[in-house]
Protein 1
Amino acid sequence: MNGWLFVALILVIIALVIFIGSIVVIIGPVKKTLTILLTYVNNIQKQMEGIQIQMTALTTTMDRMNRDVQFKKDSVQSVVTNVKQVGMNVMALKDSSQQATMNVVKRANQDEARKAQTEQWKNTALGILKRNA
């Protein structure tokens, strides 16, 4: 029985050597493939870092542009508001000057002495103009 045990042991050793050889034969190409895959992963990682840097720069630029647009929008709104206020002030001035003119005309029409004086000045001015013409 010792002989059979010895033969079985030799067969197990041969099977073990064949198994280990098979693993080495299979692992060699797999190792190369894994090395290539790791290289691709590293390259992709480097590209992602570049993309990340560009995204950060674009975000910064967009934020700066948004602030600039907001500033310009506020400036335009301020100008529009000021123009409206100037228009309202001009209308108030027009109303005020019209009221003052109407008061002057009303007072001039009520005062006969001033009417006569105004008529005299008008006639004098027309006389001077006719002589110089």
Note: The chain has a mean pLDDT of 87.
Protein 2
Amino acid sequence: MASKYEAYWRERLPEIRELVQTALGEGESGQLPLPGLTALGQRGNWRGTVRVRRSQVSGADGAAHVKALGRMLAAELSDDVWLEARVDATPALRIALVGTVSLSGRAASPATKIGRAATMPAPSVIVGS
């Protein structure tokens, strides 16, 4: 059974996919307001950051809502993408491209990756888009 946060992120998946596509093309997405997130729990702070790379989730600051977002992104992304998702205090979501992983398995520098990301075909980035 999915957690309340996993269900919330699944409902927002089409919008999150758009953020990812923007981040891949421009280096960072715009801001996506997250109405309803604060109704899911009693938190003093909704901020959090998670990095997703090669189906691995790291840096979720112990926040269940951010961990759930990271798990969903990890399941959706192809192996060559390395992203950072940030939820701010508003709460709103932004996604930034950290890099992509080369065929050798090493991450290239973010500056190099941002330029290459714009040429990546969208369908190969997120499963089901």
Note: Helices lie at 4-11, 13-26, 64-76, 110-117.
Protein 3
Amino acid sequence: MENIILKMIFILFFMMIPSLGYSQSYILDEIVIDCEHADECKEFNDLFQTLKGETVDAQLIREKARFALRDPQIDTLEYRLYNKEQEKTSLLIVQIQLKKRISRISYQGSSEVPFDLILPYLSLKEGGVLDESKLPEIEAIIKDKLVEKGFRGVTVTHDILGDDYFVGLKFNIAYKDVVKVGEIEIQTDYENRISDIYRSFRKFKDKVWDRVDTKVVVDRLTESFFREGFYFSRLQMDVEDIDERFVKLKIQVNLNRRYNFSFRGNRVYSRSEIIESIEKRLKNEVKMLSPNMMESFISELYMESGIYNTTADISVRSGKTQSGMRFENFYIDINEGNKIALSQVSYNGNSAI
């Protein structure tokens, strides 16, 4: 919630009117924009100058003011309308105060703080508008990002340097400890894959624990196993405290079984195209793979190209490799259907079409 009050003050000065039933119209012939930074306020000057020469309309002036206040660089806006009785004209004075702009963003703290990596998340930029009401929220984001990257006991404050239109913004960052990865433990249903999995995580050993980076590796491994045919694998990472400064990464991988496909009779689609289509469907919360499901997948794929009545004869062989890996081999003989074309198009309507 913004704590800056945006002011719109509308004051009309009228001369004494001899009769209560007498009304007068005034022409807005002069508009003055009172802004310390004229170049920055040019667009607001252009906005209000469109009213010049028009009959005074209080509602229209308010609408212009509200529109201007949508601009995030305005801190306060105040306007006054003066009526000149003899000339039957009016003077509109608009006073605009702009928010400060950021000349430089910096931080004070340890060189271990990855401030450059956090800065893109802060919706701040040098030369941009400084909205002081959002600084507490930005401080909270800095703290959360540092906690994600293994920092504990984080405190963040800020200083605004200078009191001109352009000011510096400095964040003061302190922390108690930096948590590092002390141990990596791999558990999986196939021991011959332990070394492969460990290689993906060993770069984190004795380094600052970064939740985001480790999560990225988990997601990449999950995708890699899927591409290998382990469609229903499950990979989970838990973090266990060793002490105040070190954690253990516990990686649990259940690969389940590997699925392989052999196709015959496919002329319209290549093997890779069929597998790509199957994998897209398997990602939609499918928990198992059966011959009936495979035949349905293939039929749907061919119908997308207008080929109907496609069937598939499917046999499955299950087993284990010498290393103990379970597999299911699908042998698929595709009977491609016929492409159905429209022989006649009929319509009802205007004969001129």
Note: Helices lie at 42-49, 58-69, 115-118, 135-148, 194-201, 211-228, 271-282, 291-303.
Protein 4
Amino acid sequence: MCVQIVVNYLIRRRETVIQALIELRPELVYHHGLSKHYPIENLEAKVEDFINSRDNNSLVKPCGLWRNDWQYRLHGIGCELVHHHTQEKFDWDIGRPDNFIVGELELHLEWRCKTQQEAQEIARYINWTHTQGGDFDRLWNHMIVHRLILEVEPYLWTISSSVRQKLGQSQ
């Protein structure tokens, strides 16, 4: 169950980058239909305010500081965030909030292993890597073989519905 918790944590933490995009580029969020998959209050009003401020030569900088703690960099249809103190990093292109790519999970897991070793699921993963000779590739194969994750498109993955149900019951 620790693997599922790690993946679920990554997906839930994605809300941070979604909030940044809603504040920094609401028209992008609107255009790509993120509100179909993620509840966004007053999105049309936020887009209108954004367009009006842009018309008044108030442009969003491609990079800067967001909410005093996050360094952001806007790119294409996404945003990269890095937290000043923890170095937690997200780099996400707008899409379904519950989908992820392999590298995203691997980087997230590496960061958590460095900064959150006391978290039960991370401690179990670290112990597994030391005692069983595990690594990320073995973990990834385990998740696929046991259908903990499913490929929804080439290179794009999500948590299986059975895992979602288990997580819903345990939280």
Note: Residues 2 and 33 are 32 Å apart (CA to CA).
